Amino acid sequence: MNIEERIEELLSKMTLHEKVGQLHQVAPSKVGGFEIPEEEAFKLYKSGDMDEKTYDAIINHKMLSNHEDEIRKGEIGSFISVMDAETANHYQKIAVEESRLGIPLIFGLDVIHGFKTMFPIPLAESCSFDDELFEETARVAAKESAAGGVNWTYAPMVDVARDSRWGRVAEGAGEDTYLASRFSRAKVRGFQGKDLTEEDRIAACVKHFAAYGAVEGGCDYDTVDMSMPKFFETYYPPYEAAVKEGCASVMMAFNDLSGVPCTTNEWLIQDLLRKNLGFKGVVISDANAIKECVNHGTALDTEDAVKQSIEAGTEMDLGSDLYETLLEQMVLDGKVEEKYVDEAVRNILRLKFKVGLFEKPYADVTKKECLLCDEHRGIARDAARKSIVLLKNDNKLLPLSKKLKIAVVGSAASDKEQMYGCWSFTGEWENAVTLVDALKKEGYDYQYGKVCGEKLPFDKEEMMKTVKDADVIIATIEHLNSGEAESLADITIQGQQLEMLSELKKLEKPIVTVLFNGRPLAIPEIVEMSDALVEAWHLGSEAGNAVADVLFGDYNPSARLTMTFPHKSGEYPIYYNHPNTGRPAGDYFWTNKYMDTPQKPLFPFGYGLGYSEFEYGDLELEKTQEGFKATVEIKNIGEYDGTETVQLYIHRRKATRVRPVRELKGYKKVTLKSGESRKVSLCVNREDLGYYDTRMNYIVDESEFDVWMAHDSGCGSWARISL
After folding, report:
1. 163, 286, 317, 549: which is the annotated catalytic residue?
2. Start and end of every Fibronectin type III-like domain (predicted)?
3. Is residue 84 annotated as a catalytic residue, yes or no?
């Protein structure tokens, strides 16, 4: 029998109780992860009475409860946050050998940027503009996760985000739709491979459908309201890209979209996912989101929330347990038709078949040697180096001579937790390499003092003692808040860290500032006080080694920003591909600009420096059958061999709706030796030049197009073409 026939055979044998059980996902923790006890643990954690590791252990995987009887009765279809093969196999053995039908469990986990080997946060990795890297880090994460008993990851997150007050920008690929779509496809390929039954592959789950990155004011869980053309042109494509790449599942977003919670949004699930995209995978809620429809005010009570969710097509309940406690009786009472449950079960069983759980239900416990192995650490170091963005380098201060006496200040330089960032609970911080670890290992002549941090008061005496004999100062600056529920109204540096930099500046010694953060920040003062500025994000297990590689010239940085940096928090939302207005910003008073901040951003999308310098020649455009080809000659006129991230932007000069001033439509990494020249070509398909009109027709009409091949979104060689 084929998979569809096997699904129907199993379905015909299942009781309603067993069917509902397949829709039920639980955590192995006594507190369940999403009920009232979590709130109590959270209060203790936030008050400082519980450390983060203890909190993570309680919420995610320790203190195992007695789910065995539920599994035997067929009341559980999936687990979340089981993170070791032995525990997974323990539960799986009961499901396969002791439940009536022997249907295997599927084990899901938020593997956002690594399992044991931690890679850069996705926002940082997206700055590499490297599709092969996106795929490779997902492949390694899948291999390690599978060795830990995981079959299913809740990644990639591909929510386009243009407001870094929203803490979850750390988890995505930034502000650009085109880049996010390529990132999306690469991550799905990396997690799933060509065949999900292959060893070391896991099912992907694109999230959060839809437009979660556009929450109002950058405030997590808030409302989203936008025009349909904007939705389809900007926010929808990365999800579409994942589904077309074969993504096995979709997670619905917490937010409402134009007044309808995504969890109960039949238009999103049935019209867009099922009909338009032909999606046959699993649709899962986000944590507790079904219950939260009552808070939204679109469901009268939890029964109403269950009815709306299952009928809309949300098939698995993550965290609220409402399907398990209410759905069976609602079907028996005639409040919900059983056909909705049947369709959900079909899709969940299909996922389990595709992952190969019916043939190979158990994790291979002998594969643990791959966890944090040397090969994976090497890939992590490479990924981290490729994600570092050099923002400033006055007088070519970097790379530093290895013979200099170095002073290192700032608590971030030795903080292992800061190397990992958010969504790193699967890793162990003690395995992270800090900047101080790297300097010590390489035998550099350095002195280190913590001196100051976001929560560490400034110690001027320690600073003076640390820097007195130094030729150059490396000042590390941290920003602690990023990830879910970490929204901020103010995205400036906190604590006394600016005071520390100000005092260092008075010493008239060269200052290299290294930022460790999970979102773009408003940092004009830091730019002004630093001779060189390095955006190091949260880079993962090999963070310290990667930063040292860049600082001392063992690696020439080539990463480019994938989110715009503002001068002030009040400029949000800020993004490069904004529409033009009737009064574009200019020197004239009556134009589209703020009066109290520069017109141009602090750092634009696509910006980044290296130790090489690249010169662009004249741009040549050629019509093709598919669209056009753009070609430019690039020369490395610097003294170092280096890699340039060539970016192609377009602007449609006429349309029935206002178009962005620039749109990214291609990019390519080009490595050139010092003095070497090369012609670089990028092709754009005519279909990718279209847009939606006010009646939601996709238009690919004739127009003139301005085209740039550029170093970033604010410069470049320009030409014009009619298509």
Report:
1. 286
2. 644-713
3. no
